[in-house]
Known about the structure:
This protein is an alpha/beta fold. Helix content is about 35%, strand content about 15%.
Amino acid sequence: MENKDDIRLLSPEQLKDFFIEKNQSKYRVDQISDWLWKKGVSNFSQMSNLSDSLRKSLGEKFCLNKPTKIEVKKSIDGTMKYSIQLHDKNSVEAVLIPSKKRITACISSQVGCSLDCKFCATSRLIRKRNLFFYEIFDQLFYLNEQSNAHFKRKVSNIVFMGMGEPLLNYKNVVKAINKMKLPGGLNFSAKRITISTSGIPKGIKNLANENLNCNLAVSLHSALQETREKIMPFSKNFPLEELMESLKYWYSVTKKKILYEYIIFDGINDDIKHVKALAKICEVLPCKVNFIEYNPIGDKIFRPSKVEKLQLYQKYLTDKGIVNTFRISRGRDINAACGQLVNLNGFNL
Length: 349
């Protein structure tokens, strides 16, 4: 197969140079942008306001690396999981989560994952590669179409909580978000976009300076370094002290509160010392704690906490004036819940 660049890799300036070379007007750049980022075409023949000769020239020079196969599973709770085969036969998963007030698109940033969180099935996969920004965008575009088709509403919220660590694919994630925000494209509000990170301090600081206006969620799971290293071994290289320093910087620049994501594991982080440690960290910066239901992945070490332990955490934090909620997992029966995305749909990952 002939090796061509995806046209979406070109900057507007590079596209303009291409059209000038073809003796075409510069306004073609806006036309192409409309087809790519608003209408999401899959081939150049669909660009009906371009001449046949120009469409042919584009097809000879460039390609559009769209997904080659998409399979869907639907949960009893309405959640829909999409296994997306990319142009190079690698695969990722994305999830559409409907509720009364919102439709959330959960999208992936890597094929596999770079990290080693012990409780997460996705982390057991080898990170094959980072997704290009247009592959991240394509997930949202497709899920938005699906949302309109199935629920008669567009996607309202976007969360980078699928496969991979977003801040270890930093440039592509930032570029994808900027494409999602394009007024002449899907025009999504940054306030409805949340990047979930396991805690990469350098990435958090850099993100603060991007002026994206999106939200930040941190998978914390323990406010004690020793315990956090057992749950998330990679965090040995990113100690809590450095993480908190980066979050202070994030807040100083963006003035946006932090969302801490927290799973309580039976016998691991469910005692009072862990409760007090979390409360202490929460008092450092404006924040909210989202307790997440653990989704078993066949590991005997990690088990859901007892209900009274969740109640202990919530009462202690509430008494301290710390806002907290408990999120029931969605899509567990189709392996679409947090920590379960591993491409069990027959794709080879």
